[in-house]
Design brief:
A hairpin with a 5-residue loop joins strand 1 and strand 2. The protein starts with 11 loop residues before the first strand and ends with a helix. It has six helices and two strands. Helix 1 runs antiparallel to helix 2 and helix 5 packs antiparallel against helix 6. It is 65% helix and 3% strand. Strands 1-2 form a two-stranded antiparallel ribbon. It is mainly alpha-helical. It has a domain of 118 residues: Cobalamin adenosyltransferase-like (Hypothetical Protein Ta1238, Chain: A, Up-down Bundle). The radius of gyration is 17 Å and the shape is globular.
């Protein structure tokens, strides 16, 4: 079976549950930004020397699959999505875990004033991931402002993740 279905050759793509939309549809643009974030996190994972951080990043990448699934589901199919995949949805427990990690890192990571990416390759990748996360966060907010139903946990998840990525960047500098 080929991954090249050619169904997108007309500039459309399928949301979950088969609804076809333009590749520039706000949902597609938004879950695309989250996909970019997952790829950026892959670079962080590849260049981090800390096994605990690497394991945490892999777990985040797995969570982002479900995050994208929720974004790739039109409002009228959200109930169906939750019935089928809700057990893996982004939760407040995940947001709280990020908050806890941020507090832990704030106790050990030192920084003074503004920082610049590039002290190390890993630091640069963490800062790139952070800015990619903020772009994804803005996309989710814009999708919500356009009238889509977005659970608050999704925005909070990205907001806390960006904070954590900033601290991981300082830790890897």
């Amino acid at each position: 079976m080929s991954i090249a279905t050619k169904t997108g050759d007309d500039g459309t793509t399928a949301l979950l549950f088969r609804k076809r939309v333009s590749k520039t549809h706000p949902r597609v643009m938004t879950y695309g930004r989250v996909d970019e974030l997952s790829s950026a996190l892959g670079l962080c994972r590849a260049f981090s020397q800390d096994e605990v951080t690497k394991a945490a990043i892999l777990q985040i990448q797995q969570q982002l699959i479900h995050f994208m699934g929720e974004l790739a589901t039109d409002d009228e199919d959200q109930e169906r999505y939750q019935e089928k995949y809700g057990k893996d949805a982004i939760t407040m427990d995940m947001v709280d875990r990020f908050s806890d990690l941020v507090k832990e890192k704030e106790e050990t990571v030192t920084f003074r004033g503004w920082t610049f990416a590039g002290e190390t390759v890993a630091d640069a990748f963490f800062d790139q991931a952070r800015t990619t996360c903020r772009r994804a966060e803005r996309g989710v907010v814009a999708l919500k402002e356009s009238g889509a139903t977005i659970r608050p946990e999704l925005i909070q998840y990205l907001n806390r993740l960006a904070d954590l990525l900033w601290l991981w960047g300082r830790e890897h500098a």
